[in-house]
């Protein structure tokens, strides 16, 4: 048994409170090295004349990635406190693993040997909004979704879709356009809209904020936005706005004051300025997003900046009843600010959703005191590599996803924001070299995976486009040019998510087989189970899946042991 590979810590994703009564405990071991793991556990104060009173409970193998096996158990300590260790068996060898190290026999003379979960305090339970589990998001880039009111078009706006998108051109998309086409979203079955920034800014993307308390006039006014939120809510659709609190725009009034008055500006401490006079070329001598001179980094450690931004966070929730914030470049802002941000937003609307844009391991933001979720780019990259690019096989995909699912607590995974494409990436169909069958498989993966999924506007009708600005084309409203078959495929998957709750994050996710281009996994909880079979290859493929009687096909191709090229099938267990 390889001791060096055995790992546990009494916190984060290895030991956490899932709800007010239940602890989740995980153990990592070397792949294929262990036969069984049992949890030795007891209340630290439960002593009799025979000694410390403990129990032993068998843990389950919850997943395997490239290097490790993961073991899991859910346990409800009667007094909400626990001391515990692990009994690990491999062949004839047995080891006891505790906080103090390894033993051949379990030491019961002192609980101090063991890992400790001191007390399950209800306030410490990670709680994302309950509604997020059932939500399917739709990302709208407002400038390019629909032009419903030409009177507010920016100067020089082009006729809708008359030209290819450029970094600096405008087509007049606005709030009225979204209101006019709300039926499209309802028909598709989405229940949440994520808007990229809507605040006053110079660019077409609006990530260069000029005024955080004003709507950009090209989208309409505040009353139109209020009406938009009202229409969305009447149609069962939540609204999430995008905020850029890492940096402002070049024309943000405090930064303009600094440019004008330099060291004499009362706003000089609102930014990270290294020297005077301020210079923008060849590289700015102040901190920015990347090295973009037009996006000066805000000093969120400054109390005045904090109060300004926290007021912004409260204002749009209080005044317009929005349901969530997506936070741009969230990993470059200090944790202290995000803790205050959460308190401010949740004080107005406890069930508001707070989503951070982070592309890497995000555990430090997901401990219940900052974000409810982050954008699940590890899922995005692995799914595209498996299906679209054919860069990895099914086994590698399953291993990568197992690793991701074990990076975070289960209640964090349930709220993860899954996506295939966005305003920052190529269009999904373009990633697939316009192979629609591949795209269907990608949406099948995303819409049956653990987490809350997001569809980028236009992907549902087969729009294409390369990296920015190509991925920001005007929405295609000519029905003759829309891919109705693709729309119907995604629409059907959304209906299945509503019908089978195990698909909407209430179920365990278990990979059953992953070989070559074929993948099988099951979402299950208690008596409900949905089985998903995928062939991501261009030839007919056999799948060895142990399907007993009682499975009924609910979607996809007929399955008699094999699937056609790019074939898929879904079954429910009766």
Features:
alpha+beta; 25% strand; 574 residues; six-stranded antiparallel sheet; eight-stranded parallel sheet; single chain
What does this structure look like?
The protein is of the alpha+beta class. 22% of the residues lie in helices and 25% in strands. The chain has an eight-stranded parallel β-sheet with strand order 20-19-18-17-14-13-22-21. Strands 3, 6, 9, 10, 11 and 12 form a six-stranded antiparallel β-sheet that branches. The chain has a five-stranded antiparallel β-sheet with strand order 23-24-25-29-27, covered by helices on one side. The longest helix has 18 residues, at 303-320. The two termini are 41 Å apart.
Question: Could you give a quick summary of the protein structure above?
Answer:
This protein is of the alpha+beta class.
Largest sheet: 8 strands, parallel
Widest beta sheet: strand line-up? 20-19-18-17-14-13-22-21
Instruction: Quickly give the structural class.
Output: alpha+beta
Mean pLDDT: 96
> What is the CA-atom radius of gyration, in angstroms?
26 Å
């Amino acid at each position: 048994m390889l001791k060096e590979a055995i790992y546990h810590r009494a916190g984060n994703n290895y030991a956490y409170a899932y709800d007010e009564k239940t602890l989740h405990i995980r153990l990592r071991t070397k792949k294929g090295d262990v036969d069984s793991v049992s949890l030795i556990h007891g209340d630290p104060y439960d002593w009799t004349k025979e000694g410390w009173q403990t129990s032993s409970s068998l843990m389950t193998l919850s997943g395997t990635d490239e290097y490790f096996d993961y073991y899991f158990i859910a346990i409800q300590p009667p007094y909400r406190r626990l001391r515990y260790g692990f009994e690990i068996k491999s062949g004839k060898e047995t080891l006891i693993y505790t906080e103090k190290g390894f033993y051949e026999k379990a030491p019961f003379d002192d609980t101090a040997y063991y890992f400790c979960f001191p007390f399950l305090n209800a306030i410490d339970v990670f709680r994302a909004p309950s509604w997020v589990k059932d939500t399917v998001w739709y990302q709208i880039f407002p400038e390019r979704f629909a032009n419903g009111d030409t009177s507010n078009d920016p100067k020089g706006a082009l006729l809708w879709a008359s030209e290819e998108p450029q970094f600096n051109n405008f087509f007049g998309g606005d709030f009225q356009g979204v209101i006019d086409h709300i039926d499209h979203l309802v028909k598709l079955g989405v229940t949440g809209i994520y808007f990229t920034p809507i605040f006053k800014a110079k660019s077409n993307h609006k990530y260069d904020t000029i005024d955080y308390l004003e709507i950009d006039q090209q989208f309409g006014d505040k009353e139109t936005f209020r009406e938009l939120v009202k229409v969305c809510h009447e149609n069962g659709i939540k609204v999430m706005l995008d905020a850029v609190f890492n940096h402002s725009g070049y024309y943000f009034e405090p930064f303009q004051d600094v440019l004008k008055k330099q060291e004499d500006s009362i706003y000089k401490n609102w930014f990270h300025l290294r020297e005077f006079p301020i210079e923008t070329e060849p590289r700015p001598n102040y901190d920015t997003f990347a090295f973009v001179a037009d996006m000066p980094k805000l000093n969120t450690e400054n109390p005045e900046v904090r109060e300004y931004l926290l007021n912004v966070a409260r204002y749009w929730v209080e005044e317009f009843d929005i349901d969530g914030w997506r936070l741009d470049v969230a990993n470059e802002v200090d944790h202290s600010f995000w803790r205050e941000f959460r308190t401010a937003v949740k004080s107005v609307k406890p069930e508001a959703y707070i989503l951070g844009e982070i592309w890497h391991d995000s555990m430090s933001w997901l401990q219940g005191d900052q974000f409810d979720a982050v954008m699940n780019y590890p899922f995005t990259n692995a799914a595209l590599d498996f299906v679209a690019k054919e860069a990895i096989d099914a086994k590698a995909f399953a291993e990568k996803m197992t690793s991701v699912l074990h990076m975070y607590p289960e209640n964090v995974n349930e709220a993860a924001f899954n996506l295939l494409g966005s305003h920052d990436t190529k269009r999904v169909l373009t990633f697939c070299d316009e192979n629609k069958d591949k795209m269907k498989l990608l949406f099948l993966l995303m819409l049956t995976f653990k987490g809350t999924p997001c569809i980028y506007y236009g992907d549902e009708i087969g729009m294409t486009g390369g990296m920015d600005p190509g991925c920001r084309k005007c929405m295609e409203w000519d029905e003759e040019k829309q891919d109705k078959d693709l729309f119907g495929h995604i629409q059907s998957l959304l209906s299945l998510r509503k019908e089978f709750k195990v698909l909407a994050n209430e179920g365990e996710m278990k990979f059953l087989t992953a070989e070559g281009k074929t993948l099988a996994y099951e979402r299950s909880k208690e008596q409900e189970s949905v089985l998903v079979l995928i062939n991501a290859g261009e030839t007919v493929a056999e799948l060895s899946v142990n399907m007993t009687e009682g499975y009924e096909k609910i979607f996809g191709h007929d399955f008699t042991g094999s699937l056609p090229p790019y074939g898929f099938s879904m079954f429910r267990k009766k």
